[in-house]
Amino acid sequence: MSVYKHYKMFKKGKNWCCMAIATLSVAVGVLSLSQHNVNADTTETEASSISTNTENTQNLSENTASLTMSTQNQNLQVETVDASKTTQNIKSINKTQDQNPQAVDQKQAQSFVANYAVVSPKAENSTLQSGWQTENGNSYYYRDGQKLTGQQNINGKDYYFNDQGQQQKDYFLNQDNHTYYFQSDGTRLNDGFYNNWGHTYYFQADGSRLDNGFYNNWGHTYYFQADGSRLDNGFYNNWGHTYYFQADGSRLDNGFYNNWGHTYYFQADGSRLDNGFYNNWGHTYYFGSDGARWDNQFMNNWGNVYYFGNDGALVQNQTINLGYGDLTFDDQGRLTSNNTFIGSIVNGAIRGWTQHQILPSLTLAQAILESAWGKSTLASTYHNLFGIKGSYNGMSVNMPTYEEYGGRMVLINDAFRRYPDNNASVQDHTDFLIKNSRYHNLIGVRDANTATYLIRADGYATASTYTNSLRNVINTYDLTRYDRVAFQL
């Protein structure tokens, strides 16, 4: 709606006054009026040079706005009076304005000065919110008037805002199969450790928690489990190996671990040494298949018997006594004897027990008795220590021998087995007893007296004194000590 002002001069007392007539016009298509009344609020505006005086106005009608100018008062006051505006009233006002156009023009031509202010509506403040804002105790971040949501990087730091835009603090976020932690100040924990619930967690450079992975720092390796917690004082098994992570979480590399009464060794790569030898400080140590070091324990390997002492070191060039007789070990740690002949066959005799459970003391006594301590022609030349007849892998030799028949000794010639060395003879002796069913009652016998009786009864020798001769050799040279060794293998 537009207001057109026409000024008309009249005399009031000694003063000439100017009266403004307001004309209302309606823009076609913009304002549509009905028969109902429309009310407008009263607004007052003051200017520096014109005053409105309701007493000095000419009443046009109830539907017109009146303005009065006083040359004596230079303050302007505009008052809009509530009126009912109908189509008929608007037409009447326009008609009144058109009656004296010349008079209005003449009055406007009069010389006078009128200062007035033009008041225009102010536009609503359109400045958009930006940056950090606090609302009802929650922190938000605005960009272009919009609240940010999700993970955001602001000034080089990472934050998380929920779907309502609220910043999350001391908060875990699970997203895309990863876990993130936002600290008490709201910043995401990147490349740092978090301690809670008695555990330690590591969040990587991208903020994701390290799950089921290794972390290397400060010259050490650490492992974080599937739930993200660091493995402390525990074992980790992978790639066919076992690893140990200490109380501070660092992997034990090139070090010893003691527990459950045993000692374990973890190698330079952190893997536990299982079923292997370790050499240090001038000694040799062995760690079994379970990783435990062998202490006070015999080993039967490579056809020989070895012993590791109470400190785990291999016994070398020593004679020790474990409570059942002296045991001598050579410079390579192999079981031997102060008696050269016994030392040459003792490991083979023990192997006869570990393989087929033929008592070692019986084997040793028979070898001593049958070969005259390895000095007989059959033994010294052909390595046949037991006087076994027949052939060995097609090898044999005819030798004179005495046999007892009816209490009378008879000299005969017979074929005897020929061997490449003494160890082959000892092994064949065990096989001979196992393959001949008449000797099966010897298998597993652990008592020397019983074994020496059975071997004669089964027909191995015809001499009536054979059993007693074997027992004398066993007792004289304390051969049962080797039975005790064999029983521990």
What are the defining features of this structure?
489 residues; alpha+beta; left handed beta-beta-3-solenoid; Lysozyme; 3-stranded antiparallel beta sheet; 9 helices; 33% strand; rod-shaped; signal; Cell_wall/Cho-bd_repeat; amidase activity
Walk me through this protein's architecture.
- Strand 1 (2-12) and strand 2 form a beta hairpin.
- 20% of the residues lie in helices and 33% in strands.
- The protein is rod-shaped, with a radius of gyration of 60 Å.
- The chain starts with a strand and ends with a helix.
- Among the domains are: 129-193, left handed beta-beta-3-solenoid, CATH 2.10.270.10; 255-316, left handed beta-beta-3-solenoid (Ribbon), CATH 2.10.270.10; 340-388 and 420-487, Lysozyme (Orthogonal Bundle), CATH 1.10.530.10.
- The strands form 13 sheets. A 3-stranded antiparallel sheet has the order 1-2-4. Strands 6-7-8 form a 3-stranded antiparallel sheet, with no helix packed on it. It has a 3-stranded antiparallel sheet with strand order 25-26-27.
- The protein has 9 helices and 29 strands.
- It is an alpha+beta fold and 489 residues long.
